[in-house]
Amino acid sequence: xxxxxDMLSYPDAIRRGWLPVSLLSITMLAASPPxxxxxxxxxxxxxxxxxxxxxKQREQELEAAREQQRKAAELQEKLKADITAIxxxxxxxxxxxxxxxxxVRSVETRIVETEARLQPLDGxxxxxRSSLDSRRAEIIEVLAxxxxxxxxxxxxxxxxxxxxxxxxxxxxxxxAVVPELRGRAEKLATDLGELVALxxxxxxxxxxxxxxxDKLKDDQTRLAALxxxxxxxxxxxxxxxxxxxxxxxxLSKQVDSLQGLIAKMEQDLKSAAKAAATANLQGAxxxxxxxxxxxxxxxxxxxxxxVAFASxxxxxAYPVNGAKIRDFGGSDxxxxxxxxxxxxxxxGAQVTTPxxxxxxxxxxxxxxxxxxxxxxGGGYHVLIAGMERISVNIGQFVLTGEPVATMGxxxxxxxxxATNASQPVLYVEFRKDGTPIxxxxxxxxxxxxxxxx
Length: 453
Fold this sequence. Notes:
This protein has about 450 residues and is of the alpha+beta class.
């Protein structure tokens, strides 16, 4: 009777409860790992693709390329129409710039958060896969034995006794191994269930990441067009902008310090001197019950700061999305003291102004890479360094949250300001009457308190 039970076919064994139904699916899944969330095409060298298949694939790729071109053309036409509609209305242009810059930074934040969520999920998936791989040989061996028992009828004992002996040994093996494997099968089922759930979550997260990256690309294209229009209008108003820029860089080579640079610009350069004079003449903006009038930020056509710099404590957002890696007063990595803060940013990240102000310098300066200096009025200056490209000109008045630069793919500042040469780092410094001050009190404690214009 026992021998008859051992020699049952595999389907009969399942029906009679002798073997867990999940074992076959578990063994098959363990023998071949689950397909990745985004299936990748098998290279031609690994598949016997016929010419029609290759032609079809090329046609699909061509159609996808055409669709991308069509969308890009539509976007460009829409941008042209939007810019034409804005015309010379500075207020509308500024509003568009600030809104799109805020969207870009919001999408950048979501991308970073999604990538952070994916890291532990990917790690757990690797752990489960490794665990399943370590048990694959045993599972495959048992599956092979089950297949031999289920697919072959008992051989004639007198014709080929060695076959009968093999079948008998197989049955004996199954009788001993399967009960012991039942607990392992349940553990495998749990692991595989978690793996399936993980892959679903990872797939959802990666889809969201892909959508955000597509949106970021579109928003960056729109922002670039608006920035170009802003600078075109600025250049029309200031015919000698290029000459001023070249002279600023020449003057910057005559000084060794940031304070010397600020003084040189605001004394010897016409546009910077005009900006500084305007800042000094404006005085402090009016307050409401002794507090800053935040409603003034709604005027996107303003040409003076909405809020006095000294009164704006707790309102500013970091100029770039990133983590603070060095703080004011700490070590600068070269036996010196940090005079500002350093923010680790993502490659190509958008840089916006933390406050209203007049541009008194925009260009390269010694170990700071590309440097932007704003005169915020009241004796305050804001210095931002480490960008790859600056998109504003000297003499220009910029608003809080307005896009002014983009980060590169590597550090643009000296090694004393960056912890990792391959990591883009933005350096931010506040000065009052030429002396570096702690910018900490000016940063907003949370997202709801930040003013972006």
